[in-house]
Amino acid sequence: MLLRLAQRFLVLLASLLVASVLVFAFMQVLPGDPARVALGMNSSDDSVAELREQFGLDRPVFVQYADWLRGMVTLDLGVEWVSKAQIAPQLVDRLAVTGWLVITAMLLALLIALPVGTWMAVRHRHLDGVVLSAISQIGVAIPAFLAGIILITYFAKRWQWFPSGGWVPPAEDPLGFLSRLALPAISLAMVQASVLARYVRTAVLEVLREDYLRTARAKGLRPMQALTRHGLRNAAVPIVTVLGLQLATLLIGAVVVERVFVIPGLGSFLLDSVASRELITVQTIVMVLVAAVLIINFLVDALYLAIDPRLRTGAR
Questions:
Q1: Architecture of 99-275 per CATH?
Q2: What is the rounded CA–CA span in Å between residue 266 and residue 316?
Q3: Contact 101, 183 (CB under 8 A)
Q4: Burial profile 297-307: b = 16 or more Cβ within 10 angstroms, e = fewer
Q5: Which of 27, 98, 136, 253 has the largest count of CB atoms under 10 Å?
Q6: Number of H helices and number of E strands within the chain?
Q7: Alpha carbon of residue 245 to chain centroid
Q8: How far apart are CA 49 and CA 57, in angstroms?
Q9: For 69-106, how does the pLDDT look when each residue is reduced to its tens digit (9 = 90+)?
Q10: Where are the alpha helices (DSSP H) in the chain?
Q11: What is the pTM of this model?
């Protein structure tokens, strides 16, 4: 098991290195001169050249890449070109905000999807199972930002149960933090719960048709007892796969939802940096998002080994 984990970790490191090269190369081919943008379009060529030297943009590309990669590893990310603000403290603060949002949304989605998806599978030939399946299908078709707008319209504007946006750190005001986290987390969780519930339904249905589960029921166990004792572990493997993908989707989907609810998270930081053409900041944020997705995939592989013993020995 440790050998397989080590192999996957080496793949993770190689993937991160390749991703960093691709992200850096993509930013290099974008049109426009960051130094001229920072000084203004009417700035003189001499001042632009001086600022390019200050930013290190006059050095060879591979030297710029090496400096940026070293900064990513050591968290010495430098300063923004226009505002001259330190990037690392802003990135840490914004990442914490997005982390609260994504983790809360995923936990809500799991709390909904696991029991609902299992019930949909067990009751797939009954009216309640069909109705739940139809509702989940509708939920899949609703974008997270649209769900957020609907929630704001009713729960914030019409009924005034929650604030319509903004953010309060949890240490500063716990109740204010929870009230502002509720609607954006629910808007993300609604869509993800619908997707996960359908995958849970499919995985559990496949398990219910297995011979060993029929044998367990023939021994006198009720359907839910047989499923709980013998089936859920096998059903968990494909669910974990989808869970990893959906967690990555949540991270990317938070970019738009943060804008809808005016949350100062990583998504808002990215969009603001794009608008002001802070390319070094955009490059760093994109790399952080890519790294998060790759790390999630690595953790999913590790969970495979914990859930399915056959993967530890290569047995099929």
A1: Orthogonal Bundle (1.10)
A2: 42
A3: no
A4: bbebbebbbee
A5: 98
A6: 14, 0
A7: 8
A8: 9
A9: 888 888 888 787 777 788 888 888 888 898 899 899 98
A10: 2-28, 34-39, 45-55, 61-74, 87-122, 127-141, 144-151, 174-208, 211-218, 223-226, 232-260, 266-275, 279-307, 310-313
A11: 0.79
Rg (CA), the chain: 24
- The structure tokens 């933090």 sit at 177
How many Å apart are CA 266 and CA 255, to the nearest integer? 7
- Cβ burial 143-158 (10 Å sphere, 16+ → b, else e): ebbebbeebbeebbee
Residue range(s) in the chain whose domain bears CATH number 1.10.3720.10: 99-275
Q: Which two tokens stand for residue 98?
A: 């997005």
d(CA 284, CA 249): 19
In DSSP notation, 228-257 reads: IIIIHHHHHHHHHHHHHHHHHHHHHHHHHH
What is the DSSP-derived secondary structure letter of residue 162? S
Question: Which of 55, 3, 11, 62 shows the shortest CA–CA distance to 34?
Answer: 55
Strand, coil or helix: what is 86? strand
What is the C-alpha to C-alpha distance for residues 33 and 85, in angstroms, rounded to an integer?
19
Tokens at residue 282, please? 């955009």
